Automatic annotation (TrEMBL):
This is HD domain-containing protein. The chain crosses the membrane at residues 12-31, 185-205. Residues 202-254 form the HAMP domain. Residues 253-280 form a coiled coil. Keywords: Coiled coil, Membrane, Transmembrane, Transmembrane helix. The keyword Transmembrane applies. GO terms for cellular component: membrane. It comes from the Bacteria. Residues 281-495 form the HD-GYP domain. It comes from Propionigenium maris DSM 9537. The keyword Transmembrane applies. The lineage of its organism: Bacteria, Fusobacteriati, Fusobacteriota, Fusobacteriia, Fusobacteriales. One of its GO terms (biological process) is signal transduction.
Length: 495
């Protein structure tokens, strides 16, 4: 967000700066064009004025000298006028186009016809001008004594003064003046541009930059930031309001931090209470499980060791399967702990089986086996009664599943309900293979113990006492991977 804001600000600044520069450049361009046009107009007008100023009174003086036929004085006057830098040629003609006097002495007494001179003589003109400043031409012819009269007749003219101006020389002088003017104009334009930029930066952009930097600081959490500013200016009110807003935000931020600290303190207290409560609940669960499981141990010491081993078997299987796609959603850390802690209660229902059946050294009769199978129902009912006393609880739910269904088989040949496949709870499927393994490995008064290798073969391949189809295929595969750990557990708790 800050980068976007920064980029937008820079674009905004550049647009304004570019716009101002464009306006000034266009203004200078049009000013140059206008100045150039004015210069040419001024040049032509000023050139005419200069020439006529030089000729002012000359016709009268020459007319007097002509009457006296004082040609030497006329020549001096012509040479004096011709000495001006902007005068290229000056001649005095008689009425027959003969040159009486010239700043070029070689022309004197020569006949040189010029249209402009003839116009003054033949057409009785007060003056004749031929100008084309683009071709560097400016010529003037005035009658001698002609400007003295409101009307001129042919008999009044005694001669003609002809002047050709040195346009290039005069133009160079004016060009220097124009270039000097342009340089001053450009310097003034640059000074104006700098003044405008300075004014904009000081009065417009600097306050915006300050506001922008303040927004960045505040967005980063610095609620103590304050914009320093002059008491006057277009942005003064906005900056004052911004500073006031930041102060209010800072006050509220401090209040929120105080509230946050209080909430954190209260949360810490609550967490400690929850942890303590959880610890007590867990202790209660463990005591409940051990108390119930101890009922089975009272009937048969070997059953106590069996309970501990099967608990660890289930834990090994559950941890191996927790990443399996079929079980990952079910075998999370919490559920594994609850299933493992509930495992010792799988044979709790045997407390309801008579000693004559439970401790019988030989094979059970069909009737006795039917009674033995009821230990799954006794276990479920005992846990259900406990659940009513303690309230519904997850670990007791898993305990009921295991106690009631750990003799169910994947192919549906188990008891008490003959469940099959996915209908059998996952917790009971884990206990089924753990219970069969420990039963085959253990010596009982009615059977001898089998070696680990043989037990693994019976479970994975089958021999009548157990068949592979009795187990969930994925649980059976897990057993094949971890059976070595089963043996380690058995040896650890066989004494």
């Amino acid at each position: 967000m800050i980068r976007e804001l920064n980029r937008s600000f820079i674009n905004f600044y550049l647009k304004i700066a570019t716009g101002i520069m464009a306006v000034i450049v266009v203004n200078i361009f049009f000013s140059f064009t206008l100045t150039d046009n004015l210069f040419h107009d001024y040049f032509e007008k000023h050139a005419e004025e200069e020439v006529f100023s030089a000729l002012s009174g000359l016709d009268f003086g020459i007319s007097v000298l002509l009457e006296k036929e004082d040609f030497n004085s006329i020549q001096r006057m012509v040479e004096n006028i011709g000495a001006y830098s902007f005068i290229e040629t000056i001649r005095v003609y008689d009425l027959h186009d003969r040159i009486l006097s010239s700043n070029n002495k070689d022309e004197i007494n020569k006949k040189l016809e010029l249209t402009i001179v003839d116009k003054v003589i033949d057409q009785n003109k007060l003056q004749s001008i031929s100008s084309n400043f683009e071709k560097k031409v400016f010529e003037v012819a005035v009658p001698i004594k002609g400007e003295r009269y409101s009307s001129v007749s042919k008999n009044d003219i005694v001669g003609v003064i002809f002047v050709r101006a040195n346009v290039e020389s005069y133009e160079r002088i004016l060009l220097r003046n124009r270039n000097l003017f342009i340089k001053k104009y450009i310097a003034s334009g640059i000074l104006l541009l700098l003044s405008i930029f300075f004014l904009l930066i000081n009065q417009f952009f600097m306050p915006i930059i300050k506001l922008f930097n303040a927004v960045v600081e505040v967005s980063d959490g610095d609620y103590k930031h304050e914009i320093k500013h002059n008491s006057h200016g277009e942005f003064s009110y906005l900056i004052q309001k911004f500073n006031s807003m930041i102060k209010q935000i800072n006050i509220r931020d401090l209040e929120l931090k105080k509230i946050k600290r209080k909430l954190e303190e209260q949360n810490d207290v609550l967490e400690k209470r929850v942890k303590e409560r959880t610890r007590k609940i867990k202790v209660t669960q463990d005591i409940t499980i051990r108390s119930l499981a101890s009922l089975a141990e009272i009937r048969d010491n070997e059953t106590g060791a069996h309970i501990q081993r099967t608990k660890d078997y289930v834990k090994v299987l559950a941890e191996d399967l927790r990443e399996h796609p079929r079980f990952s959603h079910y075998l999370n850390e919490k559920n594994i702990e609850l299933i493992v802690n509930s495992a010792p209660l799988h044979d709790i229902g045997k407390v309801g089986i008579p000693d004559s059946i439970l401790m019988k050294p030989g094979k059970l009769t069909e009737e006795e086996f039917e009674k033995m199978k009821k230990h799954t129902t006794y276990g479920r009912d005992a846990i259900a009664r406990t659940e009513k006393t303690m309230g519904t609880n997850s670990f007791l739910r898993f305990a009921k599943e295991i106690a009631y269904s750990h003799h169910e088989k994947w192919d549906g040949s188990g008891y008490p309900e003959g469940l099959s496949g996915e209908d059998i709870p996952v917790s009971a499927r884990l206990m089924t293979i753990a219970d069969v393994y420990d039963a085959l490995m253990s010596k009982r008064h009615y059977k001898d113990a089998l070696p680990h290798k043989e037990v693994v073969k019976i479970i994975t391949e089958g021999d009548g006492r157990s068949m592979p189809e009795h187990f969930d295929p994925d649980v059976l595969e897990s057993f094949k991977r971890v059976h070595q750990k089963f043996e380690e557990i058995f040896l650890k708790f066989s004494q």
